[in-house]
Amino acid sequence: MDERPAPGADPAEQALRHLRAGLTAVRDGDFATRLAPERPGVLGEIATVFNTMADQLSAFAGEVTRAAREVGTVGNLRGQTTVKGISGVWKDLSDNVNVMASNLTGQVRSMSEVATASASGRPVGDAPPQRLRPGEPVDTRHLLGRMQYWLDTP
Q: pLDDT at position 141, please?
């Protein structure tokens, strides 16, 4: 943190300025910022809580980024987030990222099954939209099955 308190300033004011600088850094995405926890009493406790919060935010952001890259870019369809020690809204967000990755995985696998059957000359038929999830306008398996039907129709 680069905010320097004035020489001779009140120690509590100095601690608050360091806290403000740390909070500003975390707000701006710098999760490497730490406060010195060696102060006695409540100021040391605040520094410890702040540092733990920054560690958790860093772990969470890194894990979500890793899972998104794994599923969305690398193509590992088993990618999931696993962040230890999170709770509340952070756990909910992690769980929702995992559900989103799982839904994407189901759709990709469904397309692969239909494409493989189609390329092998096996009929796919009008597969029921059994993998339809809330918010998905069309089940991909159903759509590809219909497409094959129309392509096979003379």
A: 62
